[in-house]
TrEMBL record:
Chain segments annotated as coiled-coil in the UniProt record: none
Stated family: Belongs to the universal stress protein A family.
Source organism per UniProt: Iodidimonas nitroreducens
Residues covered by the UspA domain: 3-158, 166-290
Superkingdom of source: Bacteria
One Pfam short name: Usp
InterPro entries documented for this protein: Universal_stress_UspA (IPR006015), UspA (IPR006016)
Protein name as it appears in the record: Universal stress protein UspA
Length: 290
């Protein structure tokens, strides 16, 4: 069955992930696969080398005790992880999710997602903006999230801590291949049906991007969407992300959709400077296409 992969670590962002996953699943009629990853390197304290401070017999006894503690810690972490997943399943069923399965992996989140994404029916990934090991500064983008966005091949929704009903969606459109995928998704899938779509581009009137914007808006309108298309001229600083952030705030957008990569001047850092900044600055979910 077609499904999305919802990543959870039980952090403050978990409920936002569950709410977003249930919203997507219910609107697109797909199931949810809940993923939790036991990253032993992250969960365990740093090893302490005591071999030089102990005589041989004491070292053997201590290492045996440490091995037993490691085994007990691993069992405890697995019990905790399964309890977390059970709680998440109950939460999602309370949101009328059609079908929910759980997956518990060991290793890293990036590796686990790489494996699960290869499944032909995996359609999307949902992850919180920050997790247990990220700083609480609202403008800090967790390193784990950066790696996931860079590695994911499927569309990825970055969820906020609090999920609110989505009625107005902004598509940041620059005519690049990844932003064309956003338009294609809107035309092919049911997720956005009945929502108000705003399509925003940055450029000069009668420029190629202006023409591409008009074509994209026409395609969406012909598919039955209520579309508002907006062309904003680039400011002197070339601060595209600020223009988009201001539009999100002023027009009270509920979700932002965009391509991970723009044109040449934006193709740097992890997935493009604009995308990185918007994930960091916007207080709404972002659905990113590559």
């Amino acid at each position: 069955m077609p499904h999305l992969i919802a990543c959870t670590d039980g952090s403050y962002y978990a409920s936002g992930v569950y709410e977003a996953a249930a919203w997507i699943a219910n609107r697109t009629h797909i199931s949810i696969k809940l993923l939790h990853v036991l990253d032993q390197k992250q969960e365990q304290p740093d090893d302490v080398d005591l071999s030089g401070a102990l005589h041989l017999e004491a070292s053997r006894e201590l290492f045996a005790e440490l091995a037993a503690l490691d085994t007990a810690r691993a069992r405890l972490l697995e019990v905790k992880a399964r309890a977390l997943l059970e709680t998440a399943v109950k939460y999602l069923r309370g949101k009328d999710a059609r079908s929910v399965a759980t997956v518990l992996k060991q290793g890293t989140l990036v590796d686990a997602l790489a494996e699960l994404e290869r499944e032909p029916k995996a359609q999307m990934v949902v992850i919180g903006k920050r997790g247990d090991y990220a700083a609480y500064d609202h403008q800090h983008l967790g390193a784990k999230l950066e790696r996931v966005i860079r590695a994911c091949r499927r569309p990825i929704l970055v969820a906020n801590q609090t999920f609110r009903p989505i009625k107005r969606v902004l598509i940041a459109f620059d005519g690049a291949a990844s932003s064309e995928k956003v338009i294609a998704y809107a035309l092919d899938q049911s997720l956005l049906k009945g929502l108000d779509l705003h399509v925003l581009s940055v450029g000069a009137p009668r420029s190629p991007i202006d023409q591409a914007l008009a074509k994209a808006a026409d395609r969406l309108q012909n598919a039955g969407y209520n579309v508002t298309s907006v062309l904003r001229q680039d400011n002197a600083e070339g601060d595209i992300e600020q223009l988009i952030t201001d539009y999100v705030r002023d027009e009270q957008m509920d979700m932002l959709m965009l391509g991970a990569y723009g044109h040449a001047r934006q193709r740097h850092l992890i997935v493009g400077k604009t995308t990185t900044s918007l994930v960091r600055l916007c207080n709404i979910p972002l659905l990113i296409f590559k």
